[in-house]
Design a protein that fits this description.
The chain has 340 residues and is of the alpha/beta class. It is built from 13 helices and nine strands. The longest helix is centred in the last third of the chain and has 21 residues.
Length: 340
């Protein structure tokens, strides 16, 4: 059995959960992403206590402290700028590698797997970031389990080249909204530049980006380059601040190939898609980045660049006139083309 406790005090919720875990039970703290920062120092103390207590033989393991951040930066349609801050995961990533985990499930099936996994772990702090708005379902249950167990992987069905063929560009993503925008960008690229070989890599376990020496979930260098390649541009659409991806991958040999798009502290009360445009995380900017960073395309695809920039200009006017996203965005579905 279980119970739900609710109060508008993050400090009290954190204290409740810590005490509940110390009594030998399991729990989950659900919070707005922007306001979980209120308990930063309490998180610090719990992480430090876990690190030390695990070395004491008389201390029994306790269930992990699990956070679910489900009202996040990209969907604050009515709350606006004050509620737009994905920086808690930056704070978490600073702690000891064997204590912290950060998960960014792209759909409901991956969220279910991650939630089940986290509730079965001990002596750790798990952070799950997942929106509560309707969203596409990308993977069936078995595929989701396999993907989450690996931490990250190639989505062969989303790209236009097989896993063994070297792509011209890697379109990578971590987070539910970045995944949507990445796949929409891939569809645009396949329609507008069909000769471009595109690979899609999705990351669920953020710590898998680090090396094995940095984190237990880190991938060996050959496995990492088998996903991201050793020398091709990587357009990375990320849920949070871009600097975190650069920090996590700085020891990778292909670190300089990562071109990260994420939250750049541009926010307001606006439509979901306009938020991504403000931070250049949208499908048009991602497609433009792919063309720009593939050397032989930049000089030959001027008409495609003009087309994508024209859609951005049209979006700018449309959203300000109608107060909602244009149909080609709001009605977009994977595999159904790009509505006009």
């Amino acid at each position: 059995d279980g119970r739900v406790l609710e109060v508008l005090s993050e400090h009290l919720c954190q204290g409740w959960l810590e005490g509940y875990l110390l009594s030998g039970r399991h729990g989950l703290f659900n919070c707005y992403e922007a306001f979980i920062h209120i308990i930063d120092s309490m998180f610090n103390q719990h992480a430090k206590w876990l690190k030390v207590s695990r070395k004491l033989p008389w201390r029994a393991p306790i269930a992990s402290l699990n956070y679910l951040l489900s009202s996040h930066v990209w969907r604050q349609d009515h709350n606006g700028y004050s509620h737009q801050d994905p920086g808690f995961i930056d704070h978490v990533a600073n702690k000891k590698a064997d204590i912290v985990r950060v998960y960014l499930p792209p759909d409901a099936n991956t969220l279910l797997w991650v939630g089940d996994h986290c509730l079965k772990t001990w002596d750790r702090i798990n952070v799950i970031v997942a929106g509560k708005q309707p969203s596409p379902q990308w993977l069936d249950r078995d595929s989701a389990a396999k993907h989450c167990e690996a931490g990250m992987g190639i989505w062969s069905w989303a790209g236009n080249t097989d896993d063994d063929t070297s792509p011209d560009v890697v379109m990578a993503c971590a987070g539910d909204v970045p995944t949507i925008e990445t796949l929409a960008a891939v569809q645009l690229l396949c329609d507008l530049v069909p000769e471009l070989n595109v690979r899609v890599v999705n990351v669920v376990d953020l710590m898998a980006l680090q090396t094995q020496e940095q984190h237990p979930h880190g991938k060996p260098e050959p496995a990492f380059e088998a996903l991201f390649t050793a020398d091709k541009p990587i357009i990375f659409a990320f849920h949070g601040y871009p600097s975190l991806i650069h920090r996590l991958t700085y020891q990778r040999r292909n670190h300089q190939n990562f071109h990260v798009h994420g939250f750049s502290e541009e926010g307001t009360t606006t439509t979901p898609f306009d938020m991504t445009v403000l931070n250049k995380l949208d499908r048009y900017h991602l497609a433009l980045a792919a063309i720009t960073h593939v050397p032989h395309l930049a000089a030959t695809q001027g008409h495609v660049i003009d087309t994508l920039q024209a859609r951005l200009a049209y979006h700018h006017d449309y959203v300000r006139e109608h107060g909602e996203d244009m149909p080609e965005v709001s009605q977009w579905r994977w595999g159904q083309g790009n509505p006009e």
